[in-house]
Amino acid sequence: MSVARSWRHQVQRYNLIGTSCNSCGKYFYPPRTMCPGCRRDGEIVSYKFKGTGEIVTYTVIHTAAEGFEHQTPYVLGIVKLDEGPSLTSQIIVDPTDIYMGMRVRPVFRKLGDSGEKGIICYGTKFVPE
Amino acid sequence: MRDVAIIGVKTTRFGEMWGRSFRDIIVEAGVGALEDSGVSGDDIGSMFVGNMSGGQFVEQEHIGALIADYSGLSEGFHVPSTRVEAACASGGLALRQGISAVASGQDDIVVAAGVEKMTDVSSGSASTALAAAADREWEGMMGATFPALYAMIARMHMHRYGTTSEQLAQVAVKNHHNGAMNPIAQYRTPITVETVLNSIMVADPLHIFDCSPITDGAAAVILAPADIAHEYTDTPIYIRGSGQASDTLALHDRRDITTLDATVFAARRAFDMAGMTVDDIDLVEVHDCFTIAEICAIEDIGFAAKGEGGKLTEEGETAIGGKIPVNTSGGLKSCGHPVGATGIKQVVEITHQLRGEAGKRQVDGAEVGMAHNVGGSGATAVVHILSRER
After folding, report:
1. Do B201 and A112 touch (CB under 8 A)?
2. Residue A49 phi/psi, 5° resolution?
3. Which CATH architecture has domain B129-212+240-387?
């Protein structure tokens, strides 16, 4: 991943900052710059999420994506934040302990790197609450 | 709008073709389809080619021009040739674009094709290329793989509806059974439920035998206005319905994790256009990139109620001879999945079936067939209904 691309969403990734729409009250993470419900009638503002939520579904990955090989097996889940939106994240938990509906909270972690000379990318993962 | 017919088809052999290049296989498919139709290259009005990622798989873009050139349709003819991309639904979308070109009256004879050459890169690089069909910034960057996204669908389906790993495995077993009878299939070896369940876990609960492979292959169909189709063939196959729909790029934004709304809407639009219902369909090729995807597809199109897809498979109703034969070609699982070519290959299989030339895979009395092609984890779906009757 290029430096600019990683840097661009750094603040949002590090701090779980998404957006919300003042017109309809909906929350968005990952952040959206246009409300899909209100479109041009929406008013998007920045919003920092509480960060707590629950596991909607999950998987234990044994064959990793490139750059994630040394992490296997790792748990990937969809987390529904308490404000409403869902996101995809790694869940730091023993693969035998995770269950659907498990309450989770955010932690700051390394997400991955682009090789020895590449950049290291940080962001938010989740752990049991 | 004019009615449209398929007058020629061809699929290359699917598999690891290290001795053959991207341009070799697409030219083979195009020439084969033209020979099947009896059309001269001079008559081609335009071409549409589905290709997901020439850029990542063979470091080649500008696919439309390349194919026109190597088909002998550039110099002297300068035939318009357009590449169409919607990840793994690129082929189905190329067909839809071709149909529009004929139906609108813009062109008479149109080639709709699909091609992917995936084995020129390592399997790791191929997986990275495929991950671009999902949300790179908010799924891929978190370590998501395609098997992982479908595994999360499977986990939810099992939790909510009681679908079992054995039922998922039966999709693979059935598709390998069909693929074993298909001369172009990548894997022509029958397997058992135990083969699937004892294979390595890729992303729990999906084993390696729940996943479609990495494949080289190409396919092409020749389209013509229905009014002149009989000039070329005694058995034109008519396009009765065509539907396309979009959904959120990322799985986590979906209304329901176990439903591909894009499939629901694309199927509904195709049925509306054809004036048909699921009861009219004699066989279907669905997008089984993973075993769970076939179960979701037969539910979302309407062959089974939501949650009943596993049971329908278990009861043998999706096998040849069952209530609704699914993936007689072997599907993506056994026939192979060259992503840009898959949507066209499905339509070639349905055409062979409706013409009654599918050999051991033949579905008796097949009059109406359907092809269902998905991009990504369900952000694009394309559904076509084909029929012997106009």
Report:
1. no
2. -75, 150
3. 3-Layer(aba) Sandwich (3.40)
